[in-house]
Design brief:
five-stranded antiparallel sheet; 5 strands; about 10% helix; globular
């Protein structure tokens, strides 16, 4: 039994925390390190890695971004929170992907 490997996995070393889009600073550029589409119990969603952690993008973005995932790497693009807008009776985050 390789206890070092088991303990490293269990301690979550190297795993970035999940950050909600709503907690990002408005108008700040967050360079995107990587992106992937993952399947959750609610369906497919885009998970973006930034320096501060991992961000799940709203489901409304999944279909449009799926084909662009290979391009969202190496800090060539950034995530930028624009603010909030009422959407389906909640204050939903508005954001953009910008080229650096």
């Amino acid at each position: 039994m390789d206890l070092a490997t088991i303990n490293a996995r269990c301690s979550l070393s190297g795993v970035k925390p999940t950050v909600k889009v709503e907690k990002l600073i408005v108008n700040k550029l967050y360079p995107i390190i990587s992106a992937k589409c993952i399947t959750t119990s609610y369906g497919d969603v885009i998970l973006i890695e930034i320096e501060e952690g991992q961000v799940f993008l709203p489901k409304r973005c999944t279909e449009v971004l799926k084909t662009s995932i290979p391009l969202l790497k190496d800090q060539l693009y950034a995530l930028k929170l624009l603010g909030f807008q009422e959407y389906r009776r909640i204050q939903a985050p508005r954001f953009e992907i910008e080229k650096l």
